[in-house]
Amino acid sequence: MSESLFAGLCRKVGTSMQINIRREVEDIEDIVRNQLTTIGSYTAMRSGSSREGFRLEGSDFDLMFWFTFFKVLWDLEQAQNYFSNRKTLILCDCSDSLPGYTLLKLMMPPYGLEILPIWVRMNENLYISSSKYRQFLCLSLPPTFTKHGPCGGGYRGITEFDYAFCFQCDFWPPSANSWIDRCRFWPKPQIVHEIVRNGCHFVPIGHKLGNHEDHEWRISFSQAEQKLVDSMNHCQFLTYGLLKIFLKEVINKGIDDQDKLLCSYHMKTSVFWSIQHNTIPHWNSQNLSRCFWICFKLLLKWVYEGACPNFFIPKNNMFLNKIHGKAQMLLFHRLYELYERGLKCLLFSSTISPYVMKVLHNPRQFICTDEYKLISLEELEEELFVETFRYNVLQTKKLRSCIKYFETVEHLMGKSLTHYKVFYLQKNTTYFLYTAAFLFFNRWANTHPNKLMYTADKMICHMLRLAAKFGCISDMLYIAMYFYRTSRYLKALSFLQILKVKLAVGQTYLVHKSHKNHERYNHAFVKHSVCKKLRQGIYTTQNMALHKDIAYMNELLPEQSGVKNGDNVLIIPTLVMIYMLETLCSIHTDPMQSQGALHILQNLVHLEHGGAIPEGLKDISWQILGICQQITGDVHSALFSYKQSLKQIPYHGIQTVTRMRIQNIMKITPQKPLV
């Protein structure tokens, strides 16, 4: 059974190679993001299951933020490590708090910060109130976000985000020193040293049974936990993943969120303790079912005793305020019923049961656990591609940030980077190149002498050519847009023609992939690096992004200013943009070609099922078709297209702009007389 579980979970959770890709992309993005935010005064760090490498349903995007001018200390002697005139020093006060929690006392007057509504006075000392701090900073989040626990969360576009505003401490908590002494077998000494050196964080939530619930802060070991998860072997990681799936699909099935007593953090804690206790000598594919069972029995023991010790501060009983009395008894009986069924309890999980049934039906069946055979080369490369494009967290509308990014990349390229990280930097460098080009053009256009504009134009074209050279297919469209905007229509059309050729190469790749023709794919592309494949168009993004605050082309400015999708970005299918630009450019060079491009665009948008346009992007696609029809003089067709845009899923929230365009047509279009 273990081998079947291992192979199935590698497909569901990911192989060690896929997990490594996800983590490396997350690591390099953290580095780049924090280099960019040094322009400001805060640092950000990804956390949660997504950062650990999971891509299960419900794995949201967690970010922790802290201001760099605050420094938290455990004792006064640590103050000598900082220049007090540059940092606001805060002292932990755990004297009246439960284990794992503390008050944060200000050590000096809050010069310039006294107007912030985050302070509370107790015993003639000034403290930072966790509830006031959380309430104040959550005001900076979108109005649709809601507060839960120490976080504020909600959706940006189709992605769920959780933001936690915290404080950072460079020193290890004295109450967690016992953890250092316990680390004899796991993790390795260098990892222990790195974890201790990085200190801890404080998130704004108090203990419900504490004396100062509204003002206390919980000690967070998120960064340490990331290091521990990263140090797991793949069987240990899959055991953690199996427990998460089992929790969601079996233990918590049918229970409302507010009534759930166990969470993923308890599952992770059980894996940590099981590894450190060396309960299982061999964590491998042959023992995966046993590993799961050991962790599950540990959870059952904790529920029976009503005590779940925090991995770093064992005196912090994480069941103290929730799992007791009748709730504890009911949860124990629920878990014990599963325990009595043995490993067959896994059959209650819709995700896991097929892996178990495979063995029950044919116990002698050979199960391949070689990860290199469980996933193909193109699937692995697709993982890298998806991860690199997964979030647009490095968006900017400032030229200064673009310059800072280029300086950061120049510095990073002098270091030893894996090809995964190089690929990530290559893709994001193309974004900053074309963003900087349009920001530069918008600042200089029509405001400087011709000679300076000529120099600026050469610089802009150079940046856009670099973006087109090193980016994917959609990145080539930006230089075509620029040439269209500056009335160089033939140059724009020549780039569109090159783009179509690259699209054909990309389609060849997609054909190989869709037919699972691995041999043909390997023969054609295996010798190429992922960076080269990106340049050759083998990786084709179906969409391009236009930021709300950057002018790209005048025809789409109303849609950009009116977009309301959380990301403040227009997402346009690549093919739609290609034929929009060809239609508009050809008006000035070849009207017949313009009509041909418009006809293709019309067929593309009208295709309801199995087309190249995702359902969520049909609102902007119909809108663009209407714009092209209106510009070419076919106002009646344009009116129909705008009305169709209103009937689509309102992903971009541009209905107000669409109605405005309809009204403008109605004003200039003669109305038919009433009979």
Largest sheet: 10 strands, mixed
- Chain oligomer state: single chain
**Number of β-strand runs:** 14
Residue stretches low in confidence (pLDDT < 50, at least 5 long) are: 511-516
Overall pLDDT level: 87
Q: What is the helix tally? A: 27
CATH topology of the domain at 1-15 and 232-375: Poly(a)-polymerase, middle domain
First-to-last CA distance: 79 Å
Alpha-beta content class: alpha+beta
Shape: globular
Which CATH architecture of the domain at 1-15 and 232-375?
Orthogonal Bundle
Q: CATH class of the domain at 1-15 and 232-375, please?
A: Mainly Alpha
What percent of residues adopt helix (DSSP H or I)?
Answer: 40-55%
Structural features, described:
This protein is an alpha+beta fold and 675 residues long. It is 52% helix and 11% strand. Among the domains are: 1-15 and 232-375, Poly(a)-polymerase, middle domain (Orthogonal Bundle), CATH 1.10.1410; 386-524, no CATH class. A hairpin with a 2-residue loop joins β6 and β7 (125-128). It is built from 27 helices and 14 strands. Strands 1, 2, 3, 4, 5, 8, 9, 10, 11 and 12 form a ten-stranded mixed β-sheet that branches. The model is unreliable at 511-516 (pLDDT under 50).
Please outline the helices and strands.
Elements: H1 2-12, H2 16-37, E1 42-47, H3 48-52, E2 61-67, E3 70-73, E4 88-93, E5 101-106, E6 119-122, E7 125-128, H4 130-137, E8 146-148, E9 151-156, E10 159-169, H5 177-182, H6 189-198, E11 200-203, E12 217-220, H7 222-231, H8 234-251, H9 264-276, H10 288-305, H11 325-340, H12 353-361, H13 371-374, H14 377-389, H15 399-412, H16 419-444, H17 450-470, H18 473-485, H19 489-514, H20 518-525, H21 530-536, E13 543-547, H22 557-562, E14 569-573, H23 574-586, H24 591-606, H25 618-631, H26 635-647, H27 655-668
Parallel strand pairs: 2-10, 3-4
Antiparallel strand pairs: 1-2, 4-5, 5-12, 6-7, 8-9, 9-10, 10-11, 11-12, 13-14
